[in-house]
Amino acid sequence: MAVNNNRKIKRKVRNAYIISTVSIALVLFLLGAVGYLILGALNASNRLKENVSVFVMLKDGIPEETSAAVKRQLETNPAIREVKFIPKDQAAADFQAYLGSDFVEFLQTNPLPDSYEVKLDGRSAETGALSALEKQVMSWDGVDEVVYQRNVIEQVTSNINKFNLVLLLFGGALLIISLILLNNTIRVTIFSKRYLIHTMKLVGATRWFITKPFLGGSILQGIYAGLISWAMLAVMIAGLHEGLPEVKFVSDQLQLLFIFGAMMVGGILISLVFTAFAVRKFLRMRTDKLYLY
User: How many CB atoms lie within 10 A of CB 233?
Assistant: First the structure.
């Protein structure tokens, strides 16, 4: 009879340990997935912004030296990653191809000026940074106008910010719920060993001596949970790349290493902190309350 009871207790402890490990892994997977999607959205936003062209229109009849000076100033600007000169004849040809008619023949003149097409770094393509760059460029000799799609940039930034906010709120709500459930799950795991903790207290064991093996087990549990969550996230990433090959998600190795590293560290910390609080609770519990808990 005693042997059967011991087996049942061991089975319950093992099942509680497995459940808490899987629960931690699910929480880590949730956080990793949210972080991965947010980084993917930010990277997509940067790529869109980098593809937005800014046109620096030059004044008619300026000397070549002035045009070359404008180009040098553009190329030395750290916010600009690419500068391309577009002569007025090429601009007219491109516009004619877009319209499908020869507007130069109709107007008897080419109203389009020489210009520079500028591509910006994604981080510098914000509306505020662009406005500051526009003011700076407009003060240069030979520059007539700076033209870019302000509405497109503002719309992209607004949509990405809304998407990230929704993800953060959704992930935050699920995180709070998951942590509450995890706290109860880990407490149940420690609860199954409450008599062992009480016995060690009776024989004079110090609190650190009692707590140390539980903390060591929690670190191992966090590592297991981290490995499980890694596998789940890797499957999700592979599925996204397979199902949506046209969408470029996070591909930077450093960003992926940061996500996976944060998941492992998070798993260890979650298991360690909740285990420490649960053990502390039973260490402080009075003997007459032990059987009522």
Answer: 22
- Position 220, amino acid: L
Phi, psi of 245 (to 5 degrees): -65, -25
Domain containing residue 251: 2-47+157-290
Radius of gyration of the chain (CA): 31
Closest CA to 133 of 64, 47, 44, 52: 52
Structural domain count, the chain: 2
Q: What is the C-alpha separation between 227 and 114, in angstroms, rounded?
A: 58
Cβ neighbour number for residue 219 with a 10 Å cutoff: 15
Instruction: Assign residue 81 the CATH number of its domain.
Output: 3.30.70.3040
The answer for residues whose C-beta is within 8 angstroms of residue 19's C-beta and 6 or more apart is 185
Residues 62 and 180 in one domain: no
pTM across the whole model: 0.68
CB count within 10 Å of CB 54 equals: 21
Cα–Cα nearest to 259, from 5, 104, 29, 42 = 29
Query: Domain ends where: 91, 124, 148?
Result: 148
The pair of structure tokens assigned to 197 is 């903790």
Residue 41: CA atoms inside 13 Å, Cβ hemisphere, count?
Answer: 19
Q: What is the pLDDT of residues 63-120, one digit of tens each?
A: 888 888 888 998 888 888 888 888 888 877 777 776 666 656 666 666 778 888 888 8
Q: Give 281-290 contacts, CB < 8 A, sequence gap 24+.
A: 281/187, 281/190, 282/190, 282/191, 282/194, 282/197, 282/198, 283/197, 283/201, 283/207, 283/210, 283/211, 285/194, 287/198, 290/194, 290/195, 290/198
How many residues in the chain? 293
Please name the residues in contact with 251: beta carbons below 8 A apart, sequence gap of 6 or more: none
